[in-house]
Specification:
Helix content is 39%, strand content 22%. With 237 residues, the protein is α+β, with helices and mostly antiparallel strands. Strands 3-4-5-6-7-8 form a 6-stranded antiparallel sheet. It has a two-stranded antiparallel sheet with strand order 1-2.
Length: 237
């Protein structure tokens, strides 16, 4: 039942948090552009050259549209697919049929620690390089504060973002550009796809801080994406 699933989740959270202090992961391995195979049972799907998602199997999908400023300007859409093992756990958690903070916590914990995930972003308006970096860091900085990754790993990732995405410095972000992240195990593959289909970045890294930083940015408490993503589970999203 839903209550049992949430209670079980809380126990897992306590065990994970007790072990995090002893965890030290090299952030240099962080930022790969998604995907490295996991097991035959994974089914979050894959993104083709144009960012189309295929092969989702029994995965669960969450979706949200990010609006910025008091004028509610649409910025980007985010879609997250989790593989069948995580999907089954989440479906049990949302069986009660309504959003609550406890359910959101439970879903977020599963999503953050997923080892079979696909994230797809699509920009719905132009943006500058500086706006992009500020937006990424706004949510990324919450991840070490929640104890999900060490502060040192966050700092190294944050320092490297301008170098990894240096190709955007003059070009900027265009409406229709996409970013995909594919996670399998501790491998993360990141791809930046221009609106015309050109691949501007295709990078793969291995290390748990890589996947935790990406998924944590979307599901950590106070992330501007979290409520919209989890709420979509109750709207047939």
């Amino acid at each position: 039942m839903c209550g049992e699933s949430v209670a079980s989740h809380r126990k897992v959270v306590r065990e994970r948090r007790s072990g995090r202090v002893a965890r030290s992961v090299c952030a240099a391995l962080f930022f790969a552009v998604t995907v490295s195979p996991a097991t035959a049972q994974t089914s979050a799907g894959s993104a083709s050259a144009d960012g189309t998602v295929t092969g989702r199997g029994a995965s669960v999908r969450m979706y949200t549209l990010l609006e910025k400023t008091i004028f509610k300007v649409d910025v980007l859409t985010v879609e997250v697919w989790l593989g069948d093992g995580d999907a089954q756990r989440i479906q049990e958690m949302v069986a009660a049929g309504r959003y609550s903070s406890d359910v959101a916590d439970a879903v977020a914990e599963v999503a953050i620690h997923s080892e079979d995930a696909l994230v797809r972003l699509e920009f719905v308006r132009d943006a500058s390089f500086e706006q992009f970096l500020d937006g990424v860091d706004e949510n990324l900085r919450l991840v070490p504060r929640a104890g999900i990754i060490p502060d040192a790993d966050y700092q190294q990732i944050s320092d490297n973002l301008p170098r990894w995405f240096a190709f955007l410095a003059e070009r900027g972000i265009h409406k229709g550009d996409k970013i995909t992240y594919r996670i399998r195990g501790d491998a993360l593959r990141t791809r930046y796809l221009a609106a015309d289909g050109q691949v501007l970045l295709d990078q793969t890294d291995v290390g748990s801080s890589a996947r935790l930083s990406v998924l944590g940015s979307y599901f950590v408490e106070k992330s501007e994406f979290r409520r919209g993503l989890v709420s979509s589970l109750f709207a047939g999203g």
